Amino acid sequence: MKMFTTKMLGLVISALLLGACSQMATYENEDLNKGLEKADQSGFNLSPYGVSNGENNAVYSDEACLTECFKPDDPTTYFYLNGRENFNPQIYTDYNVYQTATHIFYEFSIAASNSSTPLISTYELDGTSMTVGASSFSVSYPLPANWQVCDLVSRTFTITRNGNANQNSANVVIVPIDYKLIKICVDEPETCEEEFTWSRDVNDANTITFEYTPHRSKINAEIQMTTPQITAYQPLDGKVYTQFGNPSNGNGGLRWNGDLVCGEKITFTIKFTPISCNNSNNLPANLVSNFVVKDMGGNKLTGQPITGDCIGS
User: The domain that contains 238 carries what CATH number?
Assistant: First the structure.
């Protein structure tokens, strides 16, 4: 997994409206440019509506990138990361983070549990400070080039607030935010033709290749192979497998986790080391008795188990 910590891009104030029943804030050019970066490029927006709560959206978690996806043309499928940092016991800033097909958005607002009406004075990222002078703002950045699912985007914002009319002080909070990028949903046929085959290496009876074509896509799918009579295994396909159970008594096997794509064939090739066949009938060792694709129809290996040459038979 890659980690991206990107530098701040130049930003634009696309709106300077603060909706209130009896107040309207105004901003002069000199107010926006006193020792600070001027917000005159794309990506920055003062929001008169505050931070959206994402109630109709999916809830973000660190594990969401493993199993979920979102539709770029349906904002209700975006995954919202919510958080809060406190300036003091009465004043706090809320934030939301979400990803689109091309950008990652950060929304901030300030509020108080008492009667004060605080404003966000500035925010800072990567040593560059921007004037806000409002109760909320949002900023977006392009996704990293060639990003992949579960890549980590990490940014740390410094939020500074103004004091109210009777308080000529300012407070600062540090807001570190990590967001693992979510997969974009891909339109696909409702069902594809499922296929499963296996074959034996012509030079080694204990090396088996499985080929599986799923009838639908699944993120972080799980495939389990029951291996009743093996003592070891060697992946020849570059994949990572984990053992479960107790292979020595026929209750163990191998597990693989990864993405399956509807209609796309995936191949597994493994060299098995079978047990010694010290039995009166010199029966072959059972290498694999089940090939189970969880939540996708179960066992694909019907009929007799796959056998191999015994060791020391």
Answer: 2.60.40
Residues 6+ apart with CB under 8 A from 249: none
Bridge partner list, 180: 152
Same domain, 128 and 216: no
Domain that holds residue 250: 195-308
**Sign of torsion over alpha carbons 237, 147, 296, 229:** positive
The pTM for the full model equals: 0.50
Say if residues 132 and 121 touch (Cβ distance below 8 Å).
Answer: yes
| Model confidence pLDDT, tens digit, residues 222-270 | 999 999 888 889 999 999 999 988 755 556 899 999 999 989 999 999 9
Q: How many domains is the chain built from?
A: 2
pLDDT one-digit tens code per residue, 175-192? 999 999 999 987 766 678
- Residue 57 inside a domain? The answer is yes
**In a 10 Å sphere around its CB, with 0-12 CB exposed, 13-18 middle and 19+ buried, how is residue 251 labelled?**
exposed
Average pLDDT over residues 42-53: 47
* Residues 59 and 130 both lie in one domain: yes
Check residue 260 and give its pLDDT. Answer: 92
88 and 59 in a common domain: yes
Distances (CA, A) of 282 to 12, 275, 277, 310, 312: 79, 12, 6, 8, 10
Q: Which of 66-75, 86-95, 96-105, 182-191 has the lowest mean pLDDT?
A: 182-191
Q: Which one, of 65, 283, 32, 94, lies nearest residue 179 by Cα?
A: 65
Residues 199, 158 share a domain: no
The residue from 184, 212, 238 where one domain ends is 184
Q: How far apart are alpha carbons 46 and 114 in whole angstroms? A: 23
